[in-house]
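Human
Can I borrow your eye for a moment on a structure tokenisation matter? Give me a protein, with the fold worked out from its sequence. Write it directly below this note and I will take it from there.

Assistant
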Amino acid sequence: MDINYELYKVFYHVAAALSFSEASKQLFISQSAVSQSIKTLENKLDQTLFIRSTKRVQLTPEGEILMRHIEPAMHLIQRGEAQLLDALSTGGQIRIGASDTICRYFLVPYLEKFHKAFPNAHIKVINQTSIKCVELLELGQVDLIVVNYPNSYLSNVSSIKKIKTFQDVFIANQSFSDLKDKKLSYGQLAQYPILMLDKQSTTNEFLHRLFQQHQLDLIPEIELTSNDLLMDLARIGLGIAFIPDYCINDNLNNLFIVETEEELPERELVIAYNEQIPLSRATQEFLNYF
């Protein structure tokens, strides 16, 4: 049934005020225009919506049913309009999903640049693993995600933009000094205690697949949710940590990189978003940095 939204708008104001004259004031139209709109709506619906009398206006049972549906719809529309007006005055909002590691070691300079350019824009960052971030994007809880790639969970995401290439490294402290200046095979590495991210991460998935390609079973000594914690545990000699190279600054602070016979495959950081959903101005501006 094709009914003009304006008719429902008039109905809502009359039903809320239970007054044709009050509705005309709120809508800035004449009382006769209000009456005509209600009559048109009743004809289209083939229902009587109001009981009219000289003293008061009442909703019929059919009118009450319609009001129960129209009222929340009007509130949603009003809320949407308010958010759009707020976006114009504040610069809008951007919701980003990324892991703690990616936020700390990669995103911070871009967030700083964006904040300086759009100081009134609201920035919301949700920290989750690269796998969980895809779920946030699919549920519409974030506008974009910055995640490690390959990521098998990205198969249904429509837009992926590659922004940085990196390599993973094995790091250890002086307890493993006999490994300096050596290049280890994956089989030899498997004999040492390996510290790595847990199964909810693409890094865990990546390293397990790499060992399987060499017919090796990888049994980590410790699995954690934080690369920073992995580095801390490597510093006290609990094992050899597997981390992205962008986590390391020039000073390894008593740690060294354990070299491998085969060069580890490169991975990438990517931005993913759903191009089928309109992007806010803030999100579009942020994407332009990459």
In short: DSSP finds ten helices and 13 strands in the chain.
